[in-house]
Design brief:
Elements (H helix, E strand, L loop, with lengths): L4 E8 L17 E5 L5 H6 L1 H18 L15 H26 L3 E5 L2 E5 L2 E4 L4 E9 L3 E3 L3 H4 L20 E5 L3 H12 L3 E5 L11 H14 L1 E3 L4 E6 L5 E5 L4 E4 L1 E4 L3 E3 L32 E3 L10 H15 L20 E3 L5 E5 L2 H6 L4 E7 L4 H6 L5 E7 L5 E7 L3 H4 L1 H8 L4 H6 L10 H12 L1
Parallel strand pairs: 1-2, 1-6, 2-3, 6-16, 8-9, 8-14, 9-10
Antiparallel strand pairs: 4-5, 5-6, 7-15, 11-12, 12-13, 17-18, 18-21, 19-20, 20-21
The structure holds flavin-adenine dinucleotide and nicotinamide-adenine-dinucleotide.
The site of flavin-adenine dinucleotide has 36 residues, from strand 2, helix 1, helix 2, strand 4 and helix 7.
Length: 463
């Protein structure tokens, strides 16, 4: 039996949770608790390594497509293990150094390496047997990959985004279950490296959370290069004698491969925290319920990131961490005066697939469902000068504006550098710049790619 240890602040999770501990917390007695790899999802198994693989994939694709610019080249070899070493040779030390810094470099902070769960109001039991109490607690416990029981219980080896990037060798054929972000990004990466990719998705299109124009076009492009099975899911999975796996779909189709990636969404980790012991409510989707100040339903307990957010994105978790950091320094349950509000109005996202995709604001359907009088315009990359330079025949920028006011309601870009191209539209929406002011109130560098945005806005204004 150990004595309870008391802290001013306890943080569960070292992803975005770790970023709370800036110098304003120097000298405070803080417990930082992590059951997995220090640094959480983004740095270790999420955004950062995936985009390092995506960049390598784009280099491979540039070589493959060079002939269209009059340059002949051939892709000699993809050195998979060297790619892994480049990525994780840079990333793994960041986690190790981060853990060491929190263990020894920040006086007042104690790093606990253990699973935590609540056993009372702001009282945590660690898997090590230690008991921690705290004046304030932050739940920053993230989410984990969902593995449907028909796969988990099949005895067939499978991968999730947690381990697919460290496969010992490239498979010849990869079967991906799911049709969302992770499926689209890894389909791009592996196919660019020469792997034959099959995708099995439940919906009638890929990336169906997107505006229909983008999802339809992306699905059509994906069908040209990958073996795509839509409106279907897994009935059974089994090992094939001599190696490999075979997936039988609900319509009887059989899809064979050498490796299986499961990418059917991520579930918030609140279900592993015994939240009822501390009075923190979760909603029907398993997300910790928070208000606009990131306060949970239990006094003194905040939450941030994937554990509570419908948008499981790192920039959202980072924003919420900044809100929590400020509100922790106030008496947040005494009065809301002076508390910082989270701003979830214009959350952009990007899928780093081929072509890249980025979006912000409403889809056309959402704007119509909201009864808004709208004008939309789809501007092809191929009709602006930089699109000619790139020989682009796929890229589009779609904008949705409100007639009369010119308010920009939504923007959807698919094509080269989409996450960069969309950024001025995010800024315009955030700061209330209307379409006409944005299009004509500034210079657009000629002949740069953002002219696709300028022309999309002008097109929508004419409709
Ligand atoms: C493959 C992949 C690619 C992605 N790419 C992007 C991208 O390009 N852009 C983007 O914006 N987002 C991306 N995301 C999403 C992004 O990674 C997450 O939204 C973000 O990292 C969530 O941060 P978090 O702090 O909420 O959780 P995490 O970073 O997951 O941190 C939670 C931590 O809590 C720990 N923990 C959980 N429960 C307990 C417990 N009971 N006790 C102790 N410790 C616990 C976990 O081990 C984990 O380390 C990607 C995700 C994946 C999986
Ligand atoms: N670039 C980025 O920002 C990025 C990249 C990767 C992941 N993420 C985050 O991680 C989250 C999880 O990614 P994800 O791709 O796992 O989830 P997702 O929610 O994006 O997509 C899941 C997909 O799987 C399908 N599906 C669900 N159950 C299925 C089943 N049994 N059989 C076949 N298909 C099924 C769904 O219809 C959906 O298309 C994303 O929602 C996103 O928030 C972000």
């Amino acid at each position: 039996m150990t004595d309870d240890q008391h802290f001013e602040l306890a943080i569960i999770g070292t992803g975005s949770g770790n970023t709370i501990l800036t110098k304003q917390f120097a000298g405070k007695k803080v417990a930082l608790i992590e059951e997995g790899t220090f640094g959480g999802t983004c740095i270790n198994v999420g955004c950062i390594p995936t985009k390092m693989f995506v960049y390598a994939a784009e280099v491979a694709q540039t070589i493959r497509h060079s002939a269209r610019y009059g340059i002949d080249s051939s892709l000699d070899k993809v050195r998979w293990t060297d790619i892994i070493d480049r990525v994780f040779g840079r990333i793994d030390p960041i986690s190790v150094n981060g853990a060491q810094f929190r263990s020894t470099g920040t006086p007042g902070t104690t790093l606990f390496t253990a699973h935590a769960r609540f056993v009372g109001p702001r009282k945590l039991a660690l898997a090590t047997g230690e008991i921690i109490t705290a004046d304030q607690v932050v739940i920053a416990a993230g989410s984990r990959a969902i593995v449907p029981p028909e796969i988990a219980d099949s005895g067939v080896p499978f991968h999730t985004s947690d381990d697919i990037m460290r496969l010992p060798e490239l498979p010849e054929r990869l079967v991906i279950i799911g049709g969302g972000y992770i499926a689209a990004e890894f389909a791009h990466v592996f196919s660019a490296f020469g792997v034959s990719v099959s995708i099995i998705a439940r919906g009638e299109k890929l990336l169906r959370h997107l505006d229909h124009d983008i999802a339809d076009r992306f699905t059509a492009l994906a069908q040209e290069k990958w073996d795509v099975h839509l409106g279907n899911t897994v009935r059974t999975v089994h090992k094939v004698e001599g190696g490999g796996i075979s997936v039988e779909l609900t319509d009887g189709t059989r899809v064979d491969g050498d490796a299986l990636l499961v990418a059917v969404g991520r579930v918030p980790n609140g279900d592993r925290l015994d939240l009822q012991a501390t009075g923190v409510d979760v909603d029907d989707a398993g997300r910790v319920v928070v208000d606009e100040y990131q306060r949970t339903t239990a006094k003194g307990i905040f939450a941030l990131g994937d554990v509570c957010s419908p948008k499981q994105l790192k920039h959202v978790a980072n924003h919420e961490a900044r809100v929590v950091r400020d509100n922790l320094l106030r008496d947040a349950w005494a009065s809301t005066d002076g508390l910082v509000r989270a701003d979830h109005r214009f959350i952009p996202s990007a899928v780093f697939t081929d072509p890249q995709i980025a979006d912000v604001g409403m889809t056309e359907e959402q704007a119509r469902d909201a009864g808004l009088d709208i004008a939309t315009y789809v501007q092809d990359y191929s009709d602006v000068a930089y699109g000619w330079a790139m020989e682009d025949h796929e890229g589009v920028c779609k904008v949705i504006i409100e007639r009369g006011t010119g308010k920009i309601l939504g923007a959807h870009v698919m094509g080269a550098q989409a996450p960069t191209v969309i950024q001025p539209l995010i800024q315009a929406m955030q700061f209330g710049l209307d379409a006409r002011s944005m299009a004509r109130g500034q210079y657009w560098i000629h002949p740069a790619l953002p002219e696709v945005v300028e022309n999309a806005l002008l097109g929508a204004l004419k409709h």
